[in-house]
């Protein structure tokens, strides 16, 4: 049943004459057809801006179907505004369970819309073919002026399996042609110092965000070049081996904007690896220049590799220990990380962290989030910790096995005490026991 | 009055607390208890030797118990939809009874049988006794949705009516004047098969099956064994007089003579009996205190997963499962095989998988370790693959509990924090510093000192030579670099959850919706509610996010998220 403009119901179409009374209905049917024409042409005359609005809400597949309806809608489908943003999903059936962006669609985009693209990301699975396909597309983005580019490996880093030169030349196409890159995400890729130079040569005024964790072909000098030239850089993510005193000083120079986020991954390649230290004066310079900046550090080290760390005050705000970390190091964290906002510990071991937690509650006055995995804390100490932190703890994720009942508190009393101090109902995290 | 009753055993392989069987007997002239050896063993695609053996032992035990009350077990091969119409006619059946099966596959199968029974004029009696509660009532109490968090589940449980008492055990008295017609050739026609039998469905056995693996089972099947173990379990608890969760030590890893999980799964032990015995014991020892919910932890987890699964036929899949996060898992059959066969090069993981294959049971923390290693910890392989391996090897893994636990452990559902990764070296070392567990299940590594037994690849060549085991030759090198793998994987998990929760901040914990919950009673409408119902908000956002994610992956284009300027 279709409703016409007057809101009256009418039977659609004129293809069933037999069921109607001849004279009166014939007149009505004439009117129906005219109304239908008007309404369909009204739909067809919807202003492009309105179509654009509607189409933006549609997922691509539905939009594609809509574009088959009439010329007007087909035209709208190809409006540049709808092609600013695209995520290429490149998966092979042999290596992924997820669907990939259709190759015909990719062809169409490159042909008709490559110069509309501004915010682009590539999600690739663990197969080399997917990474190659990504490079293929990248090399064709010659008419593009990208603002954002993200190369994301969703499983094992397949970009690293490509021949380096192949990857670099594809990436350089974008660097050279875009000239206004603001955001660049190239973690786990074989990007190197020369290509960073090309990036800098073309985009130094606009670059605000650079994420390049685990790019083994980049040297400290390479990243220093970026910091020296790109004074608008606000967010940076890299591995510890690229961090240097010079880098921090460059990021704190007068010409540089305030840094907002610095993310550092500290990863051990071999057991017993030696890590360099950063001078406290370099961190102090950072603090003076960008007092509100967030320093996020993820540690993946063996327990005995923490020697150089946390010996002096460091302005770290978010700390994650991805492997076991010793009691002693956690003690040093309490002493030397006054700006700490989040602490997440994957594992510690079987000695209670009572003292260390209390110290953290005392000295880390900005702590709002804590996560403890395979650790041990006595219930009393834990209650004390929560009492001291109070309601500022918005995230408290403690595995149930962490909490050791003592003569003051069992697990049931503990959750009431903790809930009381937090001002909300709280329970530890549980794992199925079957 | 009168008539011929047939009781259909599927799970619930016991004569105690079997209300369906008890009610079927009432007023019946004859009773026959059947077990149908369905070639598709309750929906699973592969069944290991341990499971077959356990099942057959359960059936033997059942047959023996029935003999004591002048009855027998009738084992019939075939599909229920083929078998039953034949039986209805042959035996002039007037009544069919069975224990309620809450799993989607079970419900579908039972609906078909019910229809056949109605057509044949057979009365159908179904009773709930595999779970503590009527799961549909729990779901109703939660506004029509299965609870997605364990805390929410516990709060619903505390508002349910008391668990029903176990039904009286079937004895000769209970049988009354009811008899079982037994023919002379009963053993040939309906006897319990044995694994050694040449006529046994050999095509159902795995290819690597060898007759000499039929050593004495560590976990002997059957109701008799189950009840003995129950008594032992309770004795030990009483002796310890401590109902707290026991601390994990090296011994916990080994199969315990008081372990009950496989018996609960097959229904050799009634969960309700266990529940009441635990309650009684607690009241006796703690002098009439009200038992805390944590006392029933093992039973309630089981109940939780049954409830989560009962209305979700896609519960054991990622794709099309509204509560499962769509993760870009890696397809890697080679890596999967190494894990499944205990050849990862990490002794802790390999020993656990070896114990699993040999005995059919591993401690729950061992399960966490290997599940984490396969999925979000190291190999980044889909939890569905791990679930299939467990289905084959693990005695107590039934459909709901297995799938649910794998989703939980891989952080694919139930909104778990993913930051805690079980180190394949460190976790084992902290649990059993001496390494005896490793030496027991991986004899090739016996010669390594405790210092190196968890990471033998770090042992100097001299040590390896003395141990007569060169890493890379006699025992594999580690298949991944754990630091590197966990670094990559935590990043992947973060990417996925950030996209789900639209969280743009820097915190790791906040990328997952908060785990704080209250006992809010608001109904689940799928949308986030106000501040007084954080729990329902989490539940709502969990379901909505799950739906959002499945929709997300149907789209060919996705929102570029963080890279767009704030508009």
UniProtKB/TrEMBL annotation, chain A:
The keyword RNA-binding does not apply. One of its GO terms (cellular component) is mitochondrion. Coiled coil: none annotated. The keyword Cytoplasm applies. InterPro entries: F-box-like_dom_sf (IPR036047), F-box_dom (IPR001810), LRR_dom_sf (IPR032675). Residues 1-42 are annotated as: Disordered. It holds the Pfam family F-box-like. Pathway: Protein modification; protein ubiquitination. One of its GO terms (biological process) is rhythmic process. This is F-box domain-containing protein. It comes from Denticeps clupeoides. The lineage of its organism: Eukaryota, Metazoa, Chordata, Craniata, Vertebrata.
From TrEMBL, chain B:
FAD binds at residues 298-305, 396-398. It is found in: Cytoplasm; Nucleus. Its cofactor is FAD; (6R)-5,10-methylene-5,6,7,8-tetrahydrofolate. PROSITE patterns: PHR_CRY_ALPHA_BETA (PS51645). The keyword Phosphoprotein does not apply. Residues 517-536 are annotated as: Disordered. Keywords: Biological rhythms, Chromophore, Cytoplasm, FAD, Flavoprotein, Nucleotide-binding, Nucleus, Photoreceptor protein, Receptor, Repressor, Sensory transduction, Transcription, Transcription regulation. Its main location: cytoplasm. The keyword Metal-binding does not apply. It comes from the Eukaryota. GO terms for molecular function: DNA binding; FAD binding; photoreceptor activity. Residues 3-132 form the Photolyase/cryptochrome alpha/beta domain. GO terms for biological process: circadian regulation of gene expression; entrainment of circadian clock by photoperiod; negative regulation of DNA-templated transcription. Pfam families: DNA_photolyase, FAD_binding_7. The record marks 329, 383, 406 as: Electron transfer via tryptophanyl radical. Binds 1 FAD per subunit. GO terms for cellular component: cytoplasm; nucleus. Belongs to the DNA photolyase class-1 family. This is Cryptochrome-1. It comes from Denticeps clupeoides (denticle herring).
């Amino acid at each position: 049943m279709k409703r016409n403009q007057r809101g009256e119901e009418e039977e659609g179409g004129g293809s069933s004459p037999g069921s109607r009374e001849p004279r009166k209905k014939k007149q009505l049917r004439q009117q129906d057809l005219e109304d239908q024409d008007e309404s369909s042409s009204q739909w067809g005359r919807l202003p492009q801006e309105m179509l654009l609005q509607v189409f933006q809400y549609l997922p691509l597949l539905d939009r594609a179907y809509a574009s088959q309806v009439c010329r007007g809608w087909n035209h709208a489908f190809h409006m540049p505004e709808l092609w600013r943003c695209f995520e290429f999903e490149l998966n092979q059936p042999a290596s992924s369970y997820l669907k990939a962006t259709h190759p015909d669609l990719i062809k169409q985009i490159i042909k008709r819309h490559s110069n509309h693209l501004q915010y682009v990301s590539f999600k690739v699975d663990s197969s080399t073919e997917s990474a190659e396909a990504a490079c293929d597309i990248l090399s064709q983005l010659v008419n593009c002026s990208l603002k954002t580019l993200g190369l994301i490996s969703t499983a094992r880093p397949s970009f690293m399996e490509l021949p380096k030169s192949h990857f670099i030349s594809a990436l350089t196409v974008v660097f050279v042609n875009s000239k206004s890159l603001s955001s660049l995400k190239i973690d786990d890729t074989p990007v190197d110092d020369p290509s960073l130079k090309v990036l800098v040569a073309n985009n130094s005024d606009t670059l605000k965000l650079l994420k390049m964790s685990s790019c083994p072909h980049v040297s400290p000098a390479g990243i220093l070049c970026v910091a020296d030239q790109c004074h608008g850089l606000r967010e940076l993510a890299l591995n510890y081996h690229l961090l240097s005193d010079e880098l921090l000083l460059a990021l704190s120079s007068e010409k540089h904007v305030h840094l907002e986020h610095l993310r550092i991954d500290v990863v051990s390649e071999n057991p017993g690896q030696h890590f360099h230290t950063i001078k406290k004066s370099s961190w102090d310079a950072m603090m003076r220049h960008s007092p509100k900046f967030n320093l996020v550090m993820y540690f993946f080290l063996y327990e005995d590799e923490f020697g150089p760390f946390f010996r002096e005050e460091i302005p770290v705000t978010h700390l994650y220990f991805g492997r076991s970390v010793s009691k002693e190091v956690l003690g040093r964290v309490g002493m030397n990380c006054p700006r700490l906002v989040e602490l997440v510990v994957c594992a510690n071991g079987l000695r209670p962290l009572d003292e260390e937690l209390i110290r953290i509650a005392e000295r880390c006055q900005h702590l709002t989030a804590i996560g403890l995995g395979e650790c041990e804390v006595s219930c009393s100490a834990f209650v004390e910790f929560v009492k001291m932190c109070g309601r500022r703890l918005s995230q408290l994720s403690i595995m149930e096995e962490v909490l050791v009942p003592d003569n003051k508190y069992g697990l049931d009393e503990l959750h009431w005490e903790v809930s009381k101090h937090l001002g909300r109902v709280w329970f530890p995290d549980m794992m199925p026991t079957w | 009055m009168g008539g011929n009753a047939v009781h259909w055993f599927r799970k619930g392989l016991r004569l105690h607390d079997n209300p369906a069987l008890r009610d079927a007997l009432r007023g019946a002239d004859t009773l026959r208890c059947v077990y149908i050896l369905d070639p598709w063993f309750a929906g699973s695609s592969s069944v290991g030797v341990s499971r077959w053996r356990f099942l057959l032992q359960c059936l033997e035990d059942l047959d023996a118990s029935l003999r004591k009350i002048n009855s027998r077990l009738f084992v019939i091969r075939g599909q229920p939809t083929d078998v039953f119409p034949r039986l209805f006619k042959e035996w002039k059946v007037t009544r069919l009874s069975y224990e309620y099966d809450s799993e989607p596959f079970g419900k579908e199968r039972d609906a078909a049988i019910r229809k056949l029974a109605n057509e044949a004029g057979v009365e159908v009696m179904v009773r709930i006794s595999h779970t503590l509660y009527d799961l549909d009532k729990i779901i109703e109490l939660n506004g029509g949705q299965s609870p997605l968090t364990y805390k929410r589940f516990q709060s619903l449980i505390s508002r349910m009516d008391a668990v029903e008492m176990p039904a009286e055990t079937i004895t000769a008295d209970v049988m009354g004047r009811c008899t079982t017609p037994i023919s002379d050739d009963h053993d040939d026609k309906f006897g319990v098969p044995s694994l050694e039998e040449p006529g046994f469905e050999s095509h159902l056995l795995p290819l690597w099956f060898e007759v000499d693996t039929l050593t004495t089972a560590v976990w002997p099947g059957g109701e008799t064994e189950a009840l003995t173990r129950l008594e032992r379990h309770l004795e030990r608890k009483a002796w310890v007089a401590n109902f707290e969760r026991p601390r994990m030590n090296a011994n916990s890893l080994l199969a315990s003579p008081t372990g009950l999980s496989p018996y609960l799964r097959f229904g050799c032990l009634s969960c309700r009996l266990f529940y009441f015995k635990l309650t009684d014991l607690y009241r006796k020892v703690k002098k009439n205190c009200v038992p805390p919910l944590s006392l029933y932890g093992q039973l309630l987890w089981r109940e939780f997963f049954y409830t989560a699964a009962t209305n979700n036929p896609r519960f054991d899949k990622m794709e099309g499962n509204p509560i499962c996060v769509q993760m870009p898992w890696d397809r890697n059959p080679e890596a999967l095989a190494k894990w499944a066969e205990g050849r990862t090069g990490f002794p802790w993981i390999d020993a656990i998988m070896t114990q699993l294959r040999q005995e059919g049971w591993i401690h729950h923390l061992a399960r966490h370790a290997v599940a984490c290693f396969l999925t979000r910890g190291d190999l980044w392989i889909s939890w569905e693959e791990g679930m299939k391996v467990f289905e084959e090897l693990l005695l107590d893994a039934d459909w709901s509990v297995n799938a649910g636990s794998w989703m939980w452990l891989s952080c694919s559902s139930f909104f778990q924090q993913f930051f805690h990764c079980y180190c394949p070296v460190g976790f084992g070392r902290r649990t059993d510093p001496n390494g005896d567990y490793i030496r027991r299940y991986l004899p090739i590594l016996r010669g390594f000192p405790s210092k190196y037994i968890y990471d033998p690849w770090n042992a100097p060549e001299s040590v390896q030579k003395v141990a007569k085991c060169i890493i890379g030759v006699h025992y594999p090198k580690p298949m991944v670099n754990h630091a590197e793998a966990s670094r990559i994987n935590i990043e992947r998990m973060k990417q996925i959850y950030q996209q789900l929760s639209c969280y743009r901040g820097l915190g790791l914990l906040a990328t997952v919706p908060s785990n704080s919950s209250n006992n809010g009673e608001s109904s689940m409408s799928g949308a986030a509610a106000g501040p007084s119902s954080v729990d329902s908000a989490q539940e709502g956002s969990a379901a909505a996010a799950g739906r959002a994610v499945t929709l997300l992956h149907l789209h060919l284009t996705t929102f570029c998220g963080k890279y767009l300027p704030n508009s």
